[in-house]
Amino acid sequence: MGREIIVNGIALHANATPCFHHCRYCQLRSYKTSGVSFDRYSALVERFVVWRDRHRPDFEIWPWFGNSDDHDDATWQGIRRLDEMQNRTSTIALLGGVAHRSIDEMQRWLEKRQRLGVETIAATFSGHDEKHDYWNHMPGNYRFQLETLRLAKDMGFLLQQRVLRLRDSLLSLERLFDDLDDTVGVGHQRWALPLFYSGVARHLEHESWPRKFGQ
């Protein structure tokens, strides 16, 4: 006897905004962008929204234009419009994949997102200093993210710090936490994240934390 399969949602990924990091733990198989224009992508999302409103109000739609949040102004405004169509507001911007800029340039970058309703800036760390830069494949990224978090805090943003659980970086985490505490203080979110063994990271199972420390 066959089983009925009920699909309750769909994720629509365009992977069209460049990612300026080539992280060694990336969930994607390729860093190449798709070349899809935002107008074309937006039209696809809107068709799903119209279908949902007519036939399946419970159906969930998760758009992601990616590969990073380093969108131009017009794309950011378009993403906000898609959110509004679904009565949803995305209030977080990710630093992962963002091109390195000067402090003045990053202040303008953050100001634009603040005007669009972004409330939280999220940064992912894969270790302390050079260990992080190795895994993110981007020299200077550790310091860039710390400086951006400090700037975002001064501008009134909430901060979210995501720490990847890599065996290779385990011994450096205490120094990472000291830097984060010195940079942003307390009262902000901090998560520990396991690796997702897909894409570039599909052969990194050996980097999982041991069940018992000392193994």
What can you tell me about this protein's structure?
The chain has about 220 residues and is an alpha/beta fold. It has a single domain, classed as TIM Barrel. About 35% of the residues lie in helices and about 15% in strands. It has 6 helices and 6 strands; from the N terminus they run βαβαβαβααβαβ. The strands form 2 sheets. It has a 4-stranded parallel sheet with strand order 3-4-5-6, with helices on one face. A two-stranded parallel ribbon has the order 1-2. The radius of gyration is 19 Å and the shape is globular. The model has no long low-confidence stretch (mean pLDDT about 90).
Looking at the structure, the CATH topology is TIM Barrel
The CATH architecture designation is Alpha-Beta Barrel
* Helical proportion, percent range: 25-40%
Which stretches are low in confidence, meaning pLDDT under 50 for 5 or more residues running? none
Strand portion: 5-15%
Task: Estimate the mean pLDDT confidence.
Answer: 90
**How many domain regions?**
1
Note the topology.
Elements: E1 9-13, H1 38-55, E2 60-64, H2 73-85, E3 92-94, H3 103-115, E4 120-125, H4 130-136, H5 141-154, E5 158-164, H6 173-184, E6 189-193
Parallel strand pairs: 1-2, 3-4, 4-5, 5-6
Outline:
The protein is of the alpha/beta class. The chain has helices at residues 38-55, 73-85, 103-115, 130-136, 141-154, 173-184; strands at 9-13, 60-64, 92-94, 120-125, 158-164, 189-193.
List keywords for this structure.
four-stranded parallel sheet; alpha/beta; 215 residues; single chain; two-stranded parallel ribbon; 6 strands; TIM Barrel
